[in-house]
Amino acid sequence: MEECGGQLDARGQDYLQRIDKATRNMGQLIEDLLKLARATRGELQHAEVDLSHLAKAAVEELRKSDVDRDIEVAIKDGVVASGDARLLRIVLDNLLGNSWKYTRNTARPRVEFGAEVVDHETRYFVGDNGVGFDMAQSDRLFRPFHRLHTEAEFAGTGIGLATVKRIVSRHGGRVWGEAVEGRGATFYFQLPESRA
Predict the structure, then answer these.
(1) Can you give the pTM of this predicted structure?
(2) Domain span including residue 140
(3) Does residue 179 sit within a domain?
(4) What's the CA gap between 159 and 39, in Å, rounded?
(5) Which value, in Å, is the radius of gyration of the alpha carbons in the chain?
(6) pLDDT tens, position by position, 131-172
(7) Domain contains 23
(8) How many other β-carbons are positioned within 10 Å of the β-carbon of residue 92?
Protein backbone atom coordinates (compact mmCIF):
# COMPACT_ATOMS: atom_id res chain seq x y z
CA MET A 1 0.00 0.00 0.00
CA GLU A 2 2.83 2.38 0.83
CA GLU A 3 5.02 1.57 -2.18
CA CYS A 4 2.51 0.75 -4.90
CA GLY A 5 -0.81 2.12 -3.65
CA GLY A 6 -0.71 5.08 -6.02
CA GLN A 7 -0.31 2.78 -9.03
CA LEU A 8 -3.50 0.82 -8.29
CA ASP A 9 -7.01 1.62 -9.38
CA ALA A 10 -9.91 1.72 -6.89
CA ARG A 11 -10.47 -2.03 -7.21
CA GLY A 12 -6.82 -2.83 -6.46
CA GLN A 13 -6.81 -0.47 -3.48
CA ASP A 14 -9.98 -2.14 -2.18
CA TYR A 15 -8.30 -5.55 -2.43
CA LEU A 16 -5.26 -4.30 -0.51
CA GLN A 17 -7.46 -2.80 2.21
CA ARG A 18 -9.34 -6.09 2.56
CA ILE A 19 -6.08 -8.05 2.79
CA ASP A 20 -4.75 -5.60 5.38
CA LYS A 21 -7.93 -5.86 7.48
CA ALA A 22 -8.00 -9.67 7.25
CA THR A 23 -4.34 -9.85 8.25
CA ARG A 24 -4.92 -7.63 11.28
CA ASN A 25 -7.96 -9.70 12.29
CA MET A 26 -5.97 -12.92 11.98
CA GLY A 27 -3.14 -11.45 14.05
CA GLN A 28 -5.60 -10.47 16.78
CA LEU A 29 -7.22 -13.90 16.68
CA ILE A 30 -3.84 -15.62 17.05
CA GLU A 31 -2.95 -13.36 19.99
CA ASP A 32 -6.30 -14.08 21.64
CA LEU A 33 -5.90 -17.83 21.15
CA LEU A 34 -2.44 -17.67 22.72
CA LYS A 35 -3.91 -15.83 25.73
CA LEU A 36 -6.61 -18.49 26.02
CA ALA A 37 -4.00 -21.25 25.93
CA ARG A 38 -1.80 -19.51 28.52
CA ALA A 39 -4.79 -19.12 30.84
CA THR A 40 -5.04 -22.90 31.20
CA ARG A 41 -1.35 -23.69 31.65
CA GLY A 42 1.14 -23.22 34.43
CA GLU A 43 0.75 -23.23 38.16
CA LEU A 44 -1.40 -20.60 39.82
CA GLN A 45 0.52 -18.14 41.98
CA HIS A 46 -1.99 -17.43 44.77
CA ALA A 47 -1.65 -14.19 46.70
CA GLU A 48 -3.86 -11.41 47.97
CA VAL A 49 -4.61 -9.30 44.88
CA ASP A 50 -5.78 -5.69 44.88
CA LEU A 51 -8.46 -5.91 42.18
CA SER A 52 -9.22 -2.20 42.48
CA HIS A 53 -5.63 -1.41 41.52
CA LEU A 54 -5.76 -3.85 38.59
CA ALA A 55 -9.06 -2.35 37.38
CA LYS A 56 -7.64 1.18 37.52
CA ALA A 57 -4.59 0.08 35.53
CA ALA A 58 -6.81 -1.58 32.92
CA VAL A 59 -8.95 1.55 32.57
CA GLU A 60 -5.83 3.71 32.24
CA GLU A 61 -4.72 1.54 29.30
CA LEU A 62 -8.17 1.78 27.72
CA ARG A 63 -8.12 5.57 28.04
CA LYS A 64 -4.67 5.73 26.40
CA SER A 65 -5.81 3.63 23.46
CA ASP A 66 -9.10 5.53 23.02
CA VAL A 67 -8.36 9.14 23.96
CA ASP A 68 -11.43 10.58 22.21
CA ARG A 69 -13.92 8.70 24.40
CA ASP A 70 -15.42 10.38 27.43
CA ILE A 71 -16.56 7.55 29.71
CA GLU A 72 -17.62 7.83 33.33
CA VAL A 73 -15.78 5.14 35.28
CA ALA A 74 -16.52 4.11 38.87
CA ILE A 75 -14.07 1.75 40.58
CA LYS A 76 -14.71 0.72 44.16
CA ASP A 77 -11.57 1.12 46.28
CA GLY A 78 -10.17 -1.63 48.48
CA VAL A 79 -11.51 -4.64 46.58
CA VAL A 80 -9.15 -7.58 47.13
CA ALA A 81 -9.27 -11.27 46.33
CA SER A 82 -7.12 -14.34 46.63
CA GLY A 83 -5.77 -15.51 43.29
CA ASP A 84 -3.15 -15.26 40.60
CA ALA A 85 -2.59 -11.54 39.96
CA ARG A 86 -1.43 -12.01 36.36
CA LEU A 87 -4.50 -14.04 35.42
CA LEU A 88 -6.93 -11.84 37.33
CA ARG A 89 -5.55 -8.84 35.41
CA ILE A 90 -6.50 -10.66 32.19
CA VAL A 91 -10.02 -11.19 33.57
CA LEU A 92 -10.40 -7.48 34.33
CA ASP A 93 -8.78 -6.44 31.02
CA ASN A 94 -11.35 -8.52 29.13
CA LEU A 95 -14.40 -7.53 31.17
CA LEU A 96 -13.57 -3.82 31.29
CA GLY A 97 -12.54 -3.89 27.63
CA ASN A 98 -15.92 -5.36 26.72
CA SER A 99 -17.78 -2.72 28.72
CA TRP A 100 -15.67 -0.04 27.06
CA LYS A 101 -16.44 -1.47 23.62
CA TYR A 102 -20.16 -2.10 24.10
CA THR A 103 -20.82 1.43 25.38
CA ARG A 104 -19.40 2.92 22.19
CA ASN A 105 -22.81 4.07 20.91
CA THR A 106 -24.18 5.10 24.32
CA ALA A 107 -24.88 8.81 24.83
CA ARG A 108 -23.46 8.93 28.39
CA PRO A 109 -21.36 5.79 28.75
CA ARG A 110 -20.67 4.46 32.23
CA VAL A 111 -18.50 1.55 33.34
CA GLU A 112 -18.31 0.27 36.90
CA PHE A 113 -16.17 -2.22 38.84
CA GLY A 114 -16.96 -3.32 42.36
CA ALA A 115 -17.87 -6.12 44.72
CA GLU A 116 -20.91 -7.06 46.73
CA VAL A 117 -21.70 -9.73 49.28
CA VAL A 118 -24.78 -11.83 48.52
CA ASP A 119 -25.66 -14.86 50.67
CA HIS A 120 -22.23 -14.71 52.39
CA GLU A 121 -20.49 -14.84 48.99
CA THR A 122 -18.37 -12.03 47.54
CA ARG A 123 -19.25 -11.33 43.94
CA TYR A 124 -17.00 -9.10 41.87
CA PHE A 125 -18.60 -7.33 38.95
CA VAL A 126 -18.01 -5.18 35.90
CA GLY A 127 -21.10 -3.41 34.63
CA ASP A 128 -22.01 -0.88 31.98
CA ASN A 129 -24.94 0.93 30.41
CA GLY A 130 -24.18 -0.19 26.86
CA VAL A 131 -26.06 -2.31 24.34
CA GLY A 132 -26.56 -5.30 26.65
CA PHE A 133 -27.66 -8.62 25.19
CA ASP A 134 -30.62 -10.97 25.02
CA MET A 135 -30.54 -13.21 28.10
CA ALA A 136 -32.02 -16.01 25.99
CA GLN A 137 -28.62 -16.12 24.25
CA SER A 138 -26.56 -16.07 27.48
CA ASP A 139 -25.56 -19.74 27.14
CA ARG A 140 -23.36 -18.71 24.18
CA LEU A 141 -21.47 -15.97 26.04
CA PHE A 142 -18.51 -17.99 27.28
CA ARG A 143 -17.99 -20.25 24.26
CA PRO A 144 -14.96 -19.50 22.08
CA PHE A 145 -15.84 -17.75 18.80
CA HIS A 146 -19.51 -17.29 19.74
CA ARG A 147 -20.57 -13.68 19.48
CA LEU A 148 -23.91 -12.06 20.24
CA HIS A 149 -23.16 -9.02 18.07
CA THR A 150 -21.77 -8.93 14.55
CA GLU A 151 -18.22 -7.92 13.66
CA ALA A 152 -19.67 -4.91 11.81
CA GLU A 153 -21.37 -3.73 15.02
CA PHE A 154 -18.47 -4.36 17.41
CA ALA A 155 -15.00 -5.66 16.55
CA GLY A 156 -13.65 -8.70 18.35
CA THR A 157 -12.74 -12.35 18.02
CA GLY A 158 -15.13 -13.98 20.47
CA ILE A 159 -12.31 -15.26 22.70
CA GLY A 160 -12.33 -12.76 25.59
CA LEU A 161 -15.19 -14.17 27.65
CA ALA A 162 -14.02 -17.74 27.03
CA THR A 163 -10.66 -16.70 28.47
CA VAL A 164 -12.39 -15.12 31.48
CA LYS A 165 -14.33 -18.32 32.13
CA ARG A 166 -11.20 -20.50 31.93
CA ILE A 167 -9.29 -18.30 34.34
CA VAL A 168 -12.12 -18.08 36.86
CA SER A 169 -12.71 -21.84 36.59
CA ARG A 170 -9.01 -22.50 37.21
CA HIS A 171 -9.39 -20.56 40.43
CA GLY A 172 -12.34 -22.78 41.40
CA GLY A 173 -14.82 -19.97 40.90
CA ARG A 174 -17.69 -19.20 38.58
CA VAL A 175 -18.65 -16.41 36.19
CA TRP A 176 -21.95 -15.29 34.69
CA GLY A 177 -23.53 -12.34 32.93
CA GLU A 178 -26.83 -10.52 33.25
CA ALA A 179 -28.18 -7.93 30.85
CA VAL A 180 -31.11 -6.09 29.37
CA GLU A 181 -30.93 -5.28 25.67
CA GLY A 182 -30.29 -1.59 25.17
CA ARG A 183 -29.72 -0.97 28.88
CA GLY A 184 -26.36 -2.57 29.62
CA ALA A 185 -24.74 -5.69 30.99
CA THR A 186 -23.09 -6.79 34.20
CA PHE A 187 -20.62 -9.65 34.46
CA TYR A 188 -20.08 -11.25 37.85
CA PHE A 189 -17.38 -13.59 39.03
CA GLN A 190 -16.87 -15.37 42.32
CA LEU A 191 -13.60 -16.70 43.67
CA PRO A 192 -13.18 -19.09 46.63
CA GLU A 193 -11.97 -17.56 49.91
CA SER A 194 -12.39 -14.07 48.53
CA ARG A 195 -13.50 -10.95 50.30
CA ALA A 196 -14.44 -7.38 49.36
Answers:
(1) 0.75
(2) 39-190
(3) yes
(4) 12
(5) 19
(6) 887 767 767 677 765 555 555 554 555 678 888 998 999 999
(7) no
(8) 24
